[in-house]
Amino acid sequence: MPAPDGRFAPSPTGTLHLGNLRTALIAWLFARSADARFLVRMEDLDTGRVRERFYDEQLHDLAALGLDWDGPVARQSERLALYAGAIDRLRADGLIYGCWCTRAEIREAASAPHGDLPEGAYPGTCLRLTAAQRAEREASGRPPALRVRADAATVTFEDRLAGTVSGVVDDFVVRRNDGAYAYNLAVVVDDADQGVGEVVRGADLLDSTPRQLWLGARLGLPAPRHAHVALMLGPDGTRLAKRHGAVTLADRAALGESADDVRAYLATTVGLAKPGERVSAAELVERFSPALLASAAEAA
After folding, report:
1. What are phi and psi of 228, to 5 degrees?
2. Is the pLDDT of residue 156 over 60?
3. How far apart, in whole angstroms, are the C-alpha atoms of residue 95 and residue 86?
4. Cβ distance 16 to 24 under 8 Å?
5. Measured between alpha carbons, how far is 83 from 18 in angstroms, rounded to an integer?
6. Is 280 left (phi over 0), alpha (psi -120 to 50) or beta?
7. Pairwise CA distance, residues 224 & 5, whole Å
């Protein structure tokens, strides 16, 4: 089992909201309570949405909450050679194939029944192309996306907060047809390369974990532990978003709240502080345990 080094990996495409910050706080507490490293990595492969100002803004907000990190902040955009190497290894093992399907074709194919795969999964259309059909698509000049051949493998793992989770792995994309590397590839390569042994992130990414564990095993990488944190919800019961009002540190500051106030509030939402109690980041480390967090999640 890798060391319990943790990380927070935001995308610099906007301002962090309270839900993002709570996940960062919990990930930091997992690491610091285990005397482990805590890393920050910017997931900036979506170049069309990334904005330079958000790199510094996000780091400023983390520091304002009292969250520190070890070493330099990594940027995925500077790690492309690692992802290319992973693609080469998968190709050498016969686990990569080109996919020329359009989005409409994928939606149509995914809506049809296809055996053991979950509803909405890619059914492997381009895997079954004849040599003539593949040659025709290659001659069209339209670049293919690259998918892995997973053969509907089932992956089961124990999440530290969600319990036992199983998923069937479809033939997911590892490189888009515009040449951009996919999240599921980059995150697996990055976590292994950086020595991350404890992946703490939002529950919205729970369903993608079987894919990532399968891919890591194919690449011969150690499997980290996982803890998927419940998402913060707005008053209407939907996932917290800008439409819910004052949801960023700057918003809260405009209402007269300090970063210390926000940290204290976030701590109350996971049972680490009482309403109105002032508590420092260091005190939260002393109070924190994964078991306590799991109990709070069950009681919510």
Report:
1. -100, 120
2. yes
3. 11
4. yes
5. 31
6. beta
7. 10
Backbone angles phi, psi at 161, to 5 degrees: -120, -35
Per-residue buried b or exposed e for 79-102, using 16+ beta carbons within 10 Å of the residue's own CB? beebbeebbeebeeeebbbbbbbe
- Whole-model pTM over 0.85: yes
β-strand pairing of 38-42 with 163-168: unpaired
User: What are the counts of helices (DSSP H) followed by strands (DSSP E) for the chain?
Assistant: 11, 10
Residue type, 273: A
Q: What's the pLDDT tens digit per position in 109-138?
A: 666 655 667 767 888 899 999 999 999 999
Residue 247 vs residues 14, 18, 42, 161: alpha-carbon distances, Å: 12, 6, 21, 25
Dist. CA 87–CA 33, nearest whole Å = 36
Give the residue carrying structure tokens 């907000």. 61
> Which tens digit of pLDDT belongs to each residue from 51-72?
999 999 999 999 999 999 999 9
Amino acid at 11: S
